[in-house]
Amino acid sequence: MQNKITILGIPFDNMTRKEFLKALYQRMEDKQKTFLVTANPEIVMFAKDNKDYFDLLLQADFIAPDGIGIVRASKALNTPIKERVPGFELMIGLLELANLHQKRVYFIGAKEDIIGLAVENVKKEWPSIRIAGSHHGYFDHNDPAIIEQVKATKPDIVLVAFGFPRQEKWIQRYLNEASYGIAVGVGGSFDVLSGKVKRAPSIVQRFHVEWLYRLMKEPSRYKRMSVLPLFLKEIRKQRKKVKDL
Ligand code: UDP
């Protein structure tokens, strides 16, 4: 039985990064299809207002708590999650596993030059990964031909970097067709893998203020991040409901 912790209706798996990777590796070995979602407060809030996306997330096999906001919320609701599992770190863990066990990885998403650089860097960093293929993310996401193309390369892992909710919608369609493999949306991670966008320095990550760093680097994210106070407000409402029971 998986231990789930529900935050605003989204069932998170209460596992450490290590436990996630162990479970994912097992499913890979068993040739099971796996829909993995890494959900941050932005995704939870979007799902709250978009029923289709909410229902889609409920179909995931695993939902990882991406970011300190989710961990704080779980504590506030008296159902603490073990640790935050940033999507980027989970992706790196999957790449390490793929390297160790010579698994096939398909990379799809981001701009054409970015994906090219990202795959080059992956080859240098993890030379034993078998690159099943790669494709940029600017095509008609409803095109079944691309799904066929990816499927034909028989990937053990498909990393999808279209940003949410596009990536999860595509993954659902892909997994309907595929017979096995892990598929996960990785947002802007290829931009980081390409070397074009820097991740926050480790000191910033350690103090859990990566969001603030990103905001300073990219002020245009402000509008997107303004969802955080709304998320906290929802959590407070939820906490009150639980207390009143
Ligand atoms: N992207 C894509 N196809 C699209 C729209 C976006 O491949 O139709 C890529 C975009 O180039 C970027 C990533 O998706 O690499 C989304 O990054 P964003 O910062 O929006 O996502 P986040 O990391 O915040 O989830």
Task: Explain the layout of strands and helices.
Blueprint: E1 4-7, E2 10-13, H1 17-29, E3 33-39, H2 41-49, H3 51-58, E4 62-65, H4 68-76, H5 87-100, E5 104-109, H6 112-125, E6 130-135, H7 144-152, E7 157-161, H8 166-177, E8 181-185, H9 189-193, H10 202-206, H11 210-217, H12 222-225, H13 227-244
Bound molecules: uridine-5'-diphosphate (UDP).
Provide structural commentary.
- This protein is an alpha/beta fold and about 240 residues long.
- It has a single domain (about 5-200), classed as Rossmann fold.
- About 50% of the residues lie in helices and about 15% in strands.
- It is built from 13 helices and eight strands.
- The chain has helices at about 15-30, 40-50, 50-60, 70-75, 85-100, 110-125, 145-150, 165-175, 190-195, 200-205, 210-215, 220-225, 225-245; strands spanning about 5, 10-15, 35-40, 60-65, 105-110, 130-135, 155-160, 180-185.
- A six-stranded parallel beta sheet has the order 4-3-8-7-5-6, sandwiched between helices. Strands 1-2 form a two-stranded antiparallel ribbon.
- Bound molecules: uridine-5'-diphosphate (UDP).
- Uridine-5'-diphosphate (UDP) binds next to helix 9.
